[in-house]
Amino acid sequence: MNYNEKEIREKILKGLVETNDAVLIVIGNYLDLDEFELDFAINTKDNEIFEMFLQLFQNQALKDEARRAMLYSDYGDESADKNGLNNLIN
Questions:
Q1: Angle, vertex CA 72, rays to CA 68 and CA 78, nearest 5
Q2: Is the pTM of this model over 0.90?
């Protein structure tokens, strides 16, 4: 992505944040085959972001992928549930 595209994306995100009551936006792009870049914008109060996540995680596919990502982030193993989470913690 070139500088102009990045600048345009930033302006769009800023516009969305400023014109909506509660915003959580995440945009991902591959820089190459192995590298993924995220841009995000957040403008919410704690209770608003909680409500957003509550509604998002009613989708089972999203819930499953988020759990895998959290397990990988916390324990370095996205299949920790299958391998016995208690073994990883102890």
A1: 50
A2: no
Residue 59 burial by Cβ neighbours in a 10 Å radius (0-12, 13-18, 19+): exposed
What is residue 32's three-state secondary structure?
Answer: coil
For the record, the structure tokens of 86 come out as: 């208690």
pLDDT tens, N- to C-terminus, the chain (90 residues): 788 888 998 899 889 989 998 999 988 888 888 888 888 888 998 899 999 989 998 999 998 888 888 888 887 877 766 666 555 454
By the 10 Å C-beta count (0-12 exposed, 13-18 middle, 19+ buried), 1 is classed as exposed
